[in-house]
Description:
The complex is a heterodimer. By secondary structure, chain A is mainly β.
Amino acid sequence: GENVEQHPSTLSVQEGDSAVIKCTYSDSASNYFPWYKQELGKRPQLIIDIRSNVGEKKDQRIAVTLNKTAKHFSLHITETQPEDSAVYFCAARKNTGFQKLVFGTGTRLLVSP
Amino acid sequence: EPEVTQTPSHQVTQMGQEVILRCVPISNHLYFYWYRQILGQKVEFLVSFYNNEISEKSEIFDDQFSVERPDGSNFTLKIRSTKLEDSAMYFCASWGAGTSEDTQYFGPGTRLTVL
Lengths: 113, 115
């Protein structure tokens, strides 16, 4: 089955710096890659997603890139702010929308003022 | 914006007891899911449900677990005889077939503590 690896497990940056979180997936049939932000004790919240027919997607300070050949995708946060501090999970899903999400192990991002 | 809701938010139970976790998916969604997250770990898939049947289940979802859609709005997860290792946050999610959206919407979770 699908396996999603995520690095780093923790990431500390200064406010204003950029942060990059990387994920790799194993199943070439995966075609949808969402990123979730989870604050302590809260539900995972979708922040950005990308489909396999697109190489890059951007939404304000957040961008995701996908390299299908290498089976990896990355989350880029620019101009980080303390409120970006949370755990970020990547996920992969194959085929169609009803398929399960397979999550990475999470990255704890700490943005220091 | 429509949301997935879950009750209770916290559930404390004794080992061996049965628990039922409840979810109300988004009203026009047809696919429902349960995921769990042990404290400090990743979110793991348990089961998916469509048209009153299990579509897929993980190896975690053994005979102690069952799911049901008892009426037109609720979706439940039952654990028959809880174990200490069932302590986790349980998230319900739903997805709307027939839309162009890819997103599964997550509920706020139920924190289950087994003593």
